[in-house]
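INFO  loader      accepted 1 record
INFO  loader      residues=257
INFO  predictor   begin
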Amino acid sequence: MPIHVAAEPGDFAPVVLLPGDPLRATRIAARFDGGLERSRLVSERRGLLGYTGTVDGVPVSVQTTMMGTPTTSIVVEELLMLGVTTFIRVGTTGGFGKLGIGDALVAMAAAPATGMGGVLGGGEPSAPTADYEVVKALEAAAVAEGLVTHVGPIITSDVFYDPHPVGSVRWGRRGYMGVEMESAALFLIAMRERAKGRPVRAGTILTVSDVIVDPDDPSANRVDGEPWYRPPEDEVVRRVDLTIGAALKAAAALGRG
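INFO  predictor   done
INFO  writer      dumping tokens
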């Protein structure tokens, strides 16, 4: 039984949203049918807040992962023990190229620039890939919410403050659309479970909270002329809330089957 996610079988719905931030988990639960008062707090050990409720009558849960692939992998492994089969990461990303603040980015795949990629991939090259049905549901929900929506590959990195001489811009030059810190582990675990014959699927929807501009690209989308831009935190929260609305719609659709 789980050690860190203090819950029992049946506490979580088959579909779970995975934000990194516990405060964001509470904000998501507040948008379940009937609000936070009708949601059930099912996990809170180590600040890993988890809630279960319904969205449009469909059972849905939300569970905090904290930051990075190590804690994400722990949470996902323990949710699998509790019977969860559909995982949707809801987070933020630094966007490359022509992406703008507040855009929604649905990850098709997440290249693992992370030590956990080697662990979960057995030390061999891996291609952490989202489930196609989850990708389609997230894209459709984001478009229906009126969000500028992108679908493509991302990078999962262990490093937020990148010391590389070119910085994370190097990934944008290779065609990746954004960088975050969790999805590769989620996708690798879900792929492993599907290989065992379990109906496990995973996807990621991200809000572009930072714009990372290639200084050598004169056509890049600069904000106030800056090569790296992040708006005030209240604006980030407002934009994330819009993406959460899409994630909730997708979760309900996937939960209906």
